[in-house]
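Dear colleague,

Thank you for sharing your sequence with our group. We've completed the structure prediction you requested, and as agreed, I am returning the results in plain text so they can be pasted directly into your records. Please verify that the sequence below matches your submission; if there's any discrepancy, let me know and we will rerun it promptly.
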Amino acid sequence: MRTLPVTLTLLFASLGGLDAEAPFHRSSAVGLNEDIEEVRELLTDPPQGELTELKTAVLERSSRPSVVLIELASDPMSLARVRILSLALLSEFPTPDVKAYLLARVENTALHPTFRGWALQSYARGFAATEPEQVQKVVEPYLTDLEPGLRARAEMAMEYTRQDRSGGSSDPMKPMISLLLED
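Please find the predicted structure tokens below.
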């Protein structure tokens, strides 16, 4: 059973309400399209489990996971579930390119707040361990944003600056990912 936010996100996506932004970039590298389609298929009907298990499945299908995930997260023709899971998975690949991409998505006010919020939370999850002060500085303005969903994601994102993820602390993204991985 899905919660109301997940149900509404999927409903809006099916109505085309979440497809207002342009793709971040396109690449025609050899084999990239095949990787994108394999990962898209995986994320369309993902196996139940944890985000780390989904990361392993993505790595089995692509040697360039962050490039593939950026493409899928940027594709307005992808299902909302695929785009959200792509954004969430980007936190597992904390590179400078991923950081720049996620921050660009957060700052893009033309992008639906659902995707901006997931980008914000993914940025915090991926980079808080190495640069907590910078993450806090980026997230703080969104704690008072007029969009309630973005404010809620900012509150969850701040949790990554307050706790040690390796110390057994719970992951604020985990409950929502679990819902997205259910049928």
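Summary note from our side: DSSP finds ten helices and no strands in the chain.

Kind regards,
the structure core
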